[in-house]
Amino acid sequence: MVRRVKSALRAGLTAGSLAVLVAGCASILPGGDTASTLYGLKAPSDYATLMTANGWQLMVEEPVAERALDTDRIAVYTGPHALQYFTGARWTDRAPRMLQDLIVETFEHAGLQMSASRQAVSVRPNVSLVSDLRDFEARVTPAGEGAATAEVVVRLSAKVIWLDGRKVLDGRTFEARQSAGSDNVADVVSAMNLATQKVVRDVVTWAAETSNQAVPAS
């Protein structure tokens, strides 16, 4: 669903509560820090049927990311080694924090018998989901006779850790690619939303199943 969010938005809305797109476009050429339109991603709304141990607590840690991706700027490769950012457009939060929020939200809405949180507060978690955000960008193919095209890539390397003894139960890398209609920021964000939803859905399904099958009985 398309929805516009002005940069004046300061009400503390989460990335998952915001719509994906706005009308218009943004340039990828370098520019100053002008007023930006904020773009958010939505958590997936469809989930696999999963069985998990009742009462288990899972802590979702914020993904680690290199400096180029640990930002609220929307990254785009315009060549093999040329990383730039869309001007006049930003994510609602840093990319790793957005992914963390979307994973937690998906766990919360999936109807699982285990709960997920961003950090342990008063409840001691049984398992922890740690991850490394490897890719979260668009890759633009220069225009030949026609318009330039873009593909977004989301890649997350994750581990499920049993916290008693810090035992790694399983590790896996999740990747999704999605073609964008153009290198327009609205098309890129729309494609990024689809790719991110696939990765988040797969991570939640895998983490729940791994915890259920591999965590020792208490």
Automatic annotation (TrEMBL):
Residues in ABC-type transport auxiliary lipoprotein component domain copies: 39-203
Residues in coiled coil: none
InterPro entries per record: ABC_trans_aux
Taxonomy, superkingdom: Bacteria
A family per Pfam: ABC_trans_aux
Protein name per its UniProtKB record: ABC-type transport auxiliary lipoprotein component domain-containing protein
Species whose genome carries this gene: Candidatus Phaeomarinibacter ectocarpi
